[in-house]
């Protein structure tokens, strides 16, 4: 029995014996509700509808406290004596999970989410566990308390969320629900296997319900319990069909039936199908589908109740089988060989609990080599598919040390946002739009090896919020990093246990799982030293592999002699086993090349050592290094061991060591201070005669840290690698002999010529002089016989290349882009290895280069070439030829058709090309934009592999052959600004793969009805087609169309009657056969249209999110709009008078429980008919009434975890609506907060709707407006807390000059000045700090060219409306927003 203040309600719930009576006091009226899943459903329902509340429970004696915790209850005794495990427990101290309630009695409890329990799992003792029998897993479910008028079936359906289950149970209720299935379900829950078991009320009607379908599709394993009457249920058979269609794990259970009866539909199954064939004699195809599904399922390996007995054993076997299948859900290939990973993954997964709609941040903490990164990667691969975007930030600490942290952030944000051009150049992520986009994407981010808080601050400063459901995982050796960043979910890495250590060691040392004979004792000796460190075990085991018994025993004895079982000393043993050359390679990698490309490292090492390739392979075999994505990687412990080896060469004198990489050591050896400036002791370098690697980072520019006012007399002749960015001198030292040099990188240097005469460069493979703008000559390279890669980008004074270049038989890549004064290129015919030649923007290069027939890529963009010689037919291996913007180029010779390997051909911006080129039919991308071509010939049909066809800006193009329909591989077709193209060709056959069609700026008058054959078309652009009069009647058949742009189609005044109504079931026979129409449409742009009214059927577009109606100056009213609409832009619709229809999509966005968040933007700028001052003869101004309705909705709908709602509305106006609680002239306002907000909590805070009147009298920018709001909260004791929020609009401010506009703004998330995330409007009111005053300041901002923001216009008035009235706060405190950090 549960007592509410407003009535007495009986719950038909069987309570566990732990709770004999329960009294719950809540100020909330609820009608009759039925629960049939016990107390856990009631508790999970409370979680979804209320904030954490205190309840009073009577608990019987000797109740295990951890079982109370797992039910979702935070139990606090009313007196300390109630808890016998901790005599110091009191009301504030909470509950020890291992205590018991010895005396029973009344306890005050609080229902809270499971993740609000103590958040550190100590894997040594597993001190925090869930008991799934009592409480399996909390799910937010706001429908658990339904009104009395709601049907029970609707309630059941609403309870099924769009989320993943582990298991879906399909069974015949009357056969097995109360027996076998109930026991199976109970055991699955005990194993923490999230199982969907349906409600009979979901099985109504003739078809499987959407709720059941969602559950089937979202489950990883389906268990089908075939019983005697299973086939008699049409719903069971419908479930079975869907299960088999999903192609996931299926576990058949033949309960009391012969599998052959299922497979062949005999016995009771034959009887059932005889009835089905009679009842469904007009739908025999459906019955046939049922039979096929039964046959397929019957052939699967399953469990037979007549073979596996007793029933308890059968259930155990089934549950174990399911567990194995679920564990195999993670990529087996990735987890292969990772000993003990499954158990650790389960522990971490119990913390991050993917699927909960909150944001969780988890720290994985432990010593180096403990497996933190491996575990994080396993989790990442296991759950990443459940997120919209994901990114693994590798080696954060190392990235910072090498100055790559900025690049790492760029890569992360670009990948997550799916925007390759994203560029954040500031230390803080300031872009409001970027942050808004990020807040709408559920993301998974892993930050690996974070060593200090500043790294996380740099990576994420400015990102105020993440989308609900997002997860962030941080691995670190320093627990303080997690604590300082408020990461309270911490998983402490545990060492491998005895069995795991033994298994891992045997895999590495003996290639088996368990040792035998002498190997057992050997293993015990090794593992006693390694002490469960995975890296140490792998390294030692690998060093023993393949060795004889004597060697292995001797090596292990040496391990036992180490006085301290320190991991570093242990790893030294593996290092000692290397030969001299392998040791040097290992130390080079540890000091200089960790994280570098393997090919690059091998290239450098080959010049230093006799057997570099085999040496690297041996290091991999010994687990001293490994390769990840072709990058050389090494564990930190091993790298530190290598560093220590070098440091011990001369502990006190760094100049006597073989390698220098530590900045302070380099400083001491090379640097001297002179008049507060830093210079190099040139003699120090000269003395390093054996120096092989020398690299100066970013030594150019005003912030240069290294100055060489007198240059260097020489460089060591043993150098293999020299990188000197910004080299300050005109030439290399004359005494330097680069005969051993393998790679030379002098980008941004001041060099004019590297050296005089011929140099012995036999080892040189890579030469990079990019952006050396003083370079005028390349010295003779005839002796650089091994040169492979030469980069001379933007060497603007370079006039020619040496003729010796043609003899470089190993040269594979030559990049001369932006060498704008290069006039002559020597013959490269003998450079037979050359595959890539880049001459882009060599603007005075007139002659076509003479190259080898092996060339594969040739870039000639922006050159002055006029003719292409017929000799180019010899380029039989050419794959890419780009001659874009070659303004002097005339037509191609017919010889080009002989280039059979050519796949990409680009002539964009070459205006003298008048005929369609004859090219090979293997072409996949053809770019002819901006040429003078007049027609596309029928021979285009030969290009069967063509995927991208660009004819944009071909302003002489008049016709395109109808043969275009034969391009079955075509995906993208550009025809924009082909201003003479009046007819789009007939599409005589289906084109399934064409996704994007650009027809903007053409002279088309109509589209052919054959457009219906573009069945895969996703995006169609018809912007500024001023002659377009109508769309074909069958346009609605483009059922894949998502984006339709009709900007500037001023003559398109009528629509096909059936365009939008197809999905609604129009009367036409043809349309009834295809009810999907353009129901996929998401964006529709009608800017500049002369439509007076939109078709009423537009409401039937279920996925439409964005509707653009700018400058539709004849439009008078808006019809009912689809509830999916989020963005409506009616800027400058000067005749628009009626907009009340926007109420419905607003209600849908705010109230719909199926959406993770709501974002609405209604723009009515320059719609002066909506200005309430301009509307005559009305007592209730139109927008006033509409705004009031919106605010009422915002007041009435709030739950414990509200969705991230954001509302922007703009309309002409010069006054704040009358019903706003607080109004003020100017851009700021002070308000007093009502005392009622502090109801029984110190963390309650109201939400606000704000309004501003912005004057655009002197505004001139075309950029969108940002309304920024700063809020300062003041408490009774004088404390202050600053919050901020912003709204970005797409309103072109320059078109609002001379007018005032009223903005109504609402947002549920503010951030504080420290950029901490705030999911709800509110702030941290801790202890006795209660806020009683609030000050608001509004700033209209615009982005400048340098991405900074500046105030762009004046705020004349502002207002604040508190979203809950005083009486509501008193009557319904459970519906208020509460602050959550």
From TrEMBL:
SMART domains: TIR
UniProt xrefs under Pfam families: C-JID (PF20160), LRR_13 (PF23286), LRR_3 (PF07725), NB-ARC (PF00931), TIR (PF01582), WHD_ROQ1 (PF23282)
Enzyme Commission numbers on file: 3.2.2.6
Annotated source species: Gossypium anomalum
UniProt keyword terms in alphabetical order: Hydrolase, Leucine-rich repeat, NAD, Plant defense, Repeat
InterPro entries with a match to the protein in the record: Apaf_helical (IPR042197), C-JID (IPR045344), Disease_R_plants (IPR044974), Leu-rich_rpt_3 (IPR011713), LRR_dom_sf (IPR032675), NB-ARC (IPR002182), P-loop_NTPase (IPR027417), RPS4B/Roq1-like_LRR (IPR058546)
Domain TIR: 163-326
A GO molecular-function descriptor: NAD+ nucleosidase activity, cyclic ADP-ribose generating
Protein name from the UniProt record: ADP-ribosyl cyclase/cyclic ADP-ribose hydrolase
GO terms, biological process: defense response; signal transduction
Catalytic activity: NAD(+) + H2O = ADP-D-ribose + nicotinamide + H(+)
Highest taxon listed in the record's lineage: Eukaryota
């Amino acid at each position: 029995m549960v007592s509410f203040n407003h009535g007495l309600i009986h719950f038909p719930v069987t309570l566990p014996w732990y709770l004999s009576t329960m009294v719950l006091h809540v100020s909330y009226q609820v009608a009759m509700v039925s629960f049939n899943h016990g107390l856990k459903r009631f508790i999970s329902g409370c979680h979804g509808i209320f904030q954490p509340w205190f309840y009073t429970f009577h608990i019987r004696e000797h109740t295990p406290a951890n079982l109370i915790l797992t039910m979702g209850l935070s139990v606090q005794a009313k007196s300390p004596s109630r808890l016998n495990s901790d005599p110091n427990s009191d009301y504030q101290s909470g509950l020890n999970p291992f205590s018991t309630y010895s005396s029973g009695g009344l306890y005050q409890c609080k229902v809270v989410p499971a993740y609000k329990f103590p958040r550190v799992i100590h894997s040594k003792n597993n001190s925090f566990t869930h008991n799934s029998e009592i409480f399996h897993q909390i799910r937010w479910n706001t429908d658990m308390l339904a009104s009395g008028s709601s049907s029970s079936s609707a309630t059941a359906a609403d309870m099924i969320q769009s989320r993943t289950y582990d298991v879906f149970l399909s069974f015949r209720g009357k056969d097995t629900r109360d027996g076998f299935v109930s026991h199976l379900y109970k055991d699955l829950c005990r194993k923490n296997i999230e199982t969907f078991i349906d409600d009979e009320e979901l099985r109504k009607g003739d078809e499987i319900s959407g709720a059941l379908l969602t559950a089937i599709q979202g489950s990883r394993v389906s268990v089908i319990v075939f019983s005697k009457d299973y086939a008699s249920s049409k719903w069971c058979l419908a479930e079975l069909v869907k299960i088999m269609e999903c192609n996931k794990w299926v576990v058949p259970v033949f309960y009391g039936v012969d599998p052959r009866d299922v497979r062949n539909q005999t016995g009771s199954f034959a009887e059932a199908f005889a009835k089905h064939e009679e009842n469904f004699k007009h739908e025999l195809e459906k019955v046939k589908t049922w039979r096929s599904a039964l046959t397929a399922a019957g052939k699967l390996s399953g469990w037979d109740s007549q073979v596996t007995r007793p029933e308890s054993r059968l259930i155990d076997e089934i549950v174990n089988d399911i567990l194995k299948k679920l564990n195999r859900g993670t990529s087996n290939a990735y987890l292969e060989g990772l000993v003990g990973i499954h158990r650790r993954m389960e522990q971490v997964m119990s913390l991050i609990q993917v699927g909960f709609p909150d944001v969780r941040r988890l720290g994985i903490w432990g010593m180096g080599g403990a497996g933190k990164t491996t575990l994080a990667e396993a989790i990442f691969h296991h759950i990443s598919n459940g997120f919209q975007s994901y990114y693994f930030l590798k080696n954060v600490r190392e990235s910072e040390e090498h100055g790559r942290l900025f690049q790492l952030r760029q890569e992360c944000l670009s990948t997550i946002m799916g925007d390759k051009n994203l560029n954040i150049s500031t230390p803080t992520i300031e872009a409001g739009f970027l942050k808004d986009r990020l807040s709408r994407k559920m993301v998974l981010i892993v930050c690996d090896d974070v060593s200090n808080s500043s790294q996380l601050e740099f990576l994420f400063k400015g990102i105020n919020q993440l989308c609900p459901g997002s997860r962030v995982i941080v691995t670190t050796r320093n627990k303080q990093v997690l604590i300082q960043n408020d990461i309270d979910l911490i998983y402490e890495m545990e060492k491998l246990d005895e069995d795991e250590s033994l298994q891992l060691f045997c895999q590495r040392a003996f290639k088996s799982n368990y040792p035998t004979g002498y190997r057992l004792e050997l293993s015990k000796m090794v593992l006693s030293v390694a002490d469960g460190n995975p890296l140490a075990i792998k390294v030692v085991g690998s060093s023993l592999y393949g060795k004889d018994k004597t060697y292995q025993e001797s090596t292990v004895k040496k391990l036992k002699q180490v006085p301290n079982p320190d991991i570093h000393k242990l790893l030294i043993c593996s290092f000692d086993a290397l030969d001299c050359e392998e040791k040097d390679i290992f130390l080079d990698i540890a000091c200089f090349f960790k994280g570098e490309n393997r090919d690059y490292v091998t290239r450098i090492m080959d010049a230093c050592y006799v057997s570099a390739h085999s040496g690297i392979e041996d290091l991999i075999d010994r687990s001293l290094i490994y390769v990840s994505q072709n990058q050389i990687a090494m564990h930190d412990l091993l790298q530190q061991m290598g560093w220590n080896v070098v440091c011990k060469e001369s502990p006190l004198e760094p100049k006597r060591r073989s390698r220098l990489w530590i900045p302070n050591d380099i400083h001491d050896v090379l640097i001297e201070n002179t008049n507060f400036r830093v210079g190099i002791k040139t003699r120090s370098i000269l003395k390093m005669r054996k120096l092989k690697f020398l690299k100066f980072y970013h030594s150019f520019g005003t912030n240069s840290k290294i100055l060489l006012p007198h240059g260097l007399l020489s460089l060591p002749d043993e150098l293999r690698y020299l990188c000197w960015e910004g080299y300050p001198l005109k030439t290399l030292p004359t005494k330097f002999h680069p005969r051993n040099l393998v790679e030379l990188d002098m980008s941004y240097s001041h060099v004019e010529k590297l050296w005089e005469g011929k140099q012995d460069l036999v080892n040189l493979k890579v030469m990079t002089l990019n952006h050396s703008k003083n370079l005028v000559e390349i010295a003779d390279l005839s002796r650089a016989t091994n040169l492979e890669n030469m980069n001379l980008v933007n060497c603007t004074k370079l006039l020619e290349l040496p003729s010796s270049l043609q003899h470089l038989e190993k040269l594979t890549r030559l990049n001369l882009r932006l060498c704008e004064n290069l006039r002559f290129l020597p013959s490269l015919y003998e450079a037979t290895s050359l595959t890539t030649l880049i001459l882009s923007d060599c603007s005075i290069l007139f002659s076509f280069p003479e190259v080898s027939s092996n060339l594969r890529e040739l870039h000639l963009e922006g050159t002055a070439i006029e003719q292409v010689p017929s000799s180019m037919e010899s380029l039989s291996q050419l794959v890419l030829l780009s001659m874009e913007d070659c303004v002097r180029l005339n037509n191609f010779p017919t010889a080009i058709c002989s280039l059979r390997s050519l796949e990409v051909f680009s002539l964009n911006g070459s205006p003298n090309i008048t005929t369609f080129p004859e090219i090979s039919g293997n072409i996949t991308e053809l770019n002819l934009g901006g040429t003078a071509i007049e027609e596309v010939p029928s021979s285009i049909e030969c290009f069967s592999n063509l995927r991208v066809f660009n004819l944009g800006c071909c302003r002489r193009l008049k016709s395109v052959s109808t043969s275009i329909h034969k391009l079955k591989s075509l995906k993208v077709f550009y025809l924009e600004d082909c201003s003479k193209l009046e007819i789009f060709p007939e599409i005589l056959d289906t084109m399934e793969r064409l996704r994007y069609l650009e027809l903007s700026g053409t002279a088309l008058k109509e589209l052919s009805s054959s457009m219906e054959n573009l069945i895969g078309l996703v995006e169609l652009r018809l912007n500024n087609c001023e002659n377009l009069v109508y769309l074909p009647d069958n346009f609605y058949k483009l059922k894949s169309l998502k984006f339709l742009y009709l900007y500037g189609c001023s003559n398109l005044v009528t629509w096909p009657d059936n365009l939008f109504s197809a999905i609604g079931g129009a009367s036409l026979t043809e349309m009834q056969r295809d009810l999907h129409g353009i129901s996929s449409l998401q964006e529709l742009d009608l800017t500049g249209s002369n439509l007076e009214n939109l078709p009423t059927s537009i409401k039937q577009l279920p996925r439409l999110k964005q509707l653009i109606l700018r400058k539709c100056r004849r439009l008078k009213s808006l019809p009912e709009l689809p509830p999916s609409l989020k963005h409506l832009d009616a800027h400058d619709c000067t005749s628009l008078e009626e907009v009340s229809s926007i109420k419905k999509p607003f209600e849908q966005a705010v109230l719909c429980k199926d959406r993770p968040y709501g974002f609405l933007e209604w723009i009515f700028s320059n719609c002066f008919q909506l200005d309430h001052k301009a509307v005559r003869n009305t007592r209730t101004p139109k927008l006033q009434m509409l705004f009031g309705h919106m605010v009422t909705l915002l007041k009435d709908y709030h739950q414990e975890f509200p969705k991230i709602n954001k509302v922007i509305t703009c309309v002409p106006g010069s006054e704040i609506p009358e019903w706003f609680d607080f109004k003020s002239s100017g851009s700021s306002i002070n308000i007093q907060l009502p005392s009622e907000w502090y109801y029984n909590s110190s963390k309650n805070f109201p939400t606000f709707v704000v309004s501003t009147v912005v004057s655009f009298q002197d505004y001139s920018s075309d950029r969108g407006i940002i309304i920024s709001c700063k809020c300062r909260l003041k408490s009774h004791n004088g404390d202050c807390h600053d919050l901020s929020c912003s709204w970005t609009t797409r309103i072109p401010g320059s078109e609002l000059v001379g007018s005032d506009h009223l903005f109504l703004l609402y947002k549920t998330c503010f951030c504080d000045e420290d950029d901490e995330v705030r999911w709800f409007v509110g702030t941290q009111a801790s202890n006795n700090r209660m806020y009683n005053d609030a000050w608001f300041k509004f700033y209209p901002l615009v982005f400048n060219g340098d991405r900074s923001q500046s105030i762009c216009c004046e705020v004349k008035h502002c207002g604040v409306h508190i979203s809950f009235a005083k009486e509501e706060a008193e009557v319904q405190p459970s519906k208020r927003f509460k602050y959550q950090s």
